[in-house]
Amino acid sequence: MKWLKIILFLLPLLLAFSDLEAQQRFPKPEFHTKYTQPTPTTPEPRGVGMEFVDVLVLLVVLSLTSWFAIKKRSRNGILLLTVFSAIYFGFYRNGCICSVGSVQNVALAFADPKYVISLYALLFFLLPLIFSLFFGRVFCGAACPLGAIQDLLIYKPITIPAWLRKTLGFIPYLYLGLAVLYAATGTEFIICRYDPFIGIYRMNGPHLMIYLGIAFLLMGLFIARPYCRFFCPFGAILNVFSRFSRRHLSVFPTKCIQCKLCTTACPFEAIDFPDEEKTKPDTKSNTRRFILYMALIPVLMLAGSWIGSKSHVFLSKAHPDVYLAELLISHPELKTDSKNIDIQTFLASGKSLETLVAEAQVIRDKFYTGSWILGAFLGLVIGLMAMNQIIFRRREDYQANKGNCYSCGRCLDYCPVE
Amino acid sequence: MNRKTFINNSGRLILLGGLVYLTGSIIFKRKVSASGKYVWQIDPFKCMQCGRCSTQCVREISAVKCVHAYQLCGYCDLCGGYFKPNTHKLNTGAESQLCPTGALKRKYVEEPFFEYKIDEKLCNACGKCVKGCGSFGNGSLQLQIRHDLCQNCNECSIARMCPTNAISRVPIEAAYQIKGDFKNPALTNPK
Ligand code: SF4
Ligand code: SF4
Ligand code: SF4
Ligand code: SF4
Ligand code: SF4
Predict the structure, then answer these.
(1) What pTM value is reported for the model?
(2) Three-class SS state of B177
(3) Which residues neighbour A304 within 8 Å (Cβ) at sequence distance 6 or greater?
(4) Is the CB of B114 under 6 A from ligand 5?
(5) Mutate to test the pocket of ligand 5, among B47, B152, B156, B167 (most ligand atoms within 8 A of CB)
(6) C-alpha of residue A377 to centroid of ligand 2, in Å
């Protein structure tokens, strides 16, 4: 009886071992000659321990740019830093991780309890924003590798009409909203996927990425900083933050003498003109318009969230699990398609279609919440953009627009005032 | 303080508060790793050699390579990873080799054993040999992201396309997941 118990106790162990034996079809040979078995090499990841240095460099570049832009008033200093950033963050560190992409890491860390964000990604996100709250968009001025490569390749900038600029200026907010939605739902990092310049910095990459980068750079010869102005999602946040900055680069050192020289300097049309007396709107009708627009914002947000929640089904198709579940439901005949790797893997995994659909439903629910928030956010953006048109701000001088100015410093050299 | 500075100051305070809230909520969920860095790696027990590793990497030539876990190898003469199935002549002619680029090299050790080694410069991570070795041999060949080549993208573009979700971020201390000795179950299958 006792023995039986022992055997019963040992049996699973024995079985476990024989099972392991079975995994190795061919036994390990016993060599008779002097043969030492090699071990697989495991090359170290590139740039281990560089992240700390990166953050430090970013901090120094941001501080120096602020100093050059506000105190020193030196375009050459900023230019030098721009070249440095393109070389260091771009060509040397291969442009990853950059602050622009870190938005997604932060969004995912905020939404997904399992995702662990590295401290460096978090700092890359925070530092430029904090600096923009105090000194304006100094990050764009010299520290951003994506901005740097575009800034250095401005050749003959053309003027873009204000209405077009303002309409296209909506794209970054849309891009930002979609990037956050896709990151927070764990679908993908679209900013990284469609980053136009990273392939150029790495001098390696899929053809499409490289062509996109070259196209942007060629366009940038005439349309200054096209990615910054009409696409960059991080620029959208910086734009808002910078409007409330404590200090900001000033085109003139002491007093504007209305010489208009600076207006030709800025390739981004970021200098606001002083208002002429006759354009000063009549206050009464303006107040009425102001109230009307204020009332319009909630309506726009509601409409936006309605459209957003309606489009969540479409938006969620970008998630591979949702896509696969839909495909299997709508085209069951594809199960026999041996070329469709995703379907074959799913079938081989032994997971039931119900489980997959349930998982996809969870993701789709997340998309539902995310999409209506996205819609409301975009409604708010449109509302505020419209309101910005009618708000009258007294302006007597030629001065940089705090939201749109990249603190590149070009205008500083043009101002004749000492 | 005039109205303009008031709006300016309060706006700044609100935005600063937003940043503090965002950072705080991430930090207090203890989701920030200060010490560690993460890298992308393939779990060899999940990978089914779909072939996307050779085409989806952002590098023109994939950062994924075939790696040989010699510990597991049977040093077989008739290697399922080296020869095409149904090859009768065990010669090293290109027509009987499975690897399309000739990256898998074979060296005679002693009767009847052969050592198999990967020339990483030639390997394009197609996974054919890995599949062959897995179906007919010990499964000692496997795919791994080589960190000297990998750009450590913010999001690995192969991971997004991998049908078995075999690619995930791992702490840098465990940057490689190479199959171990079958006698040690912990090393053999960590999952
Ligand atoms: S707008 Fe975006 S891409 Fe351009 S410099 Fe600023 S952060 Fe960089
Ligand atoms: S510092 Fe600002 S306003 Fe001056 S040229 Fe540069 S972007 Fe334009
Ligand atoms: S994509 Fe995934 S399954 Fe396909 S070869 Fe790479 S790791 Fe293996
Ligand atoms: S068969 Fe494919 S994965 Fe194996 S060594 Fe050759 S190229 Fe690399
Ligand atoms: S992280 Fe980037 S470079 Fe590395 S394997 Fe994935 S796609 Fe390739």
Answers:
(1) 0.90
(2) coil
(3) A374, A375, A376, A377, A378, A379, A380, A382
(4) no
(5) B156
(6) 29
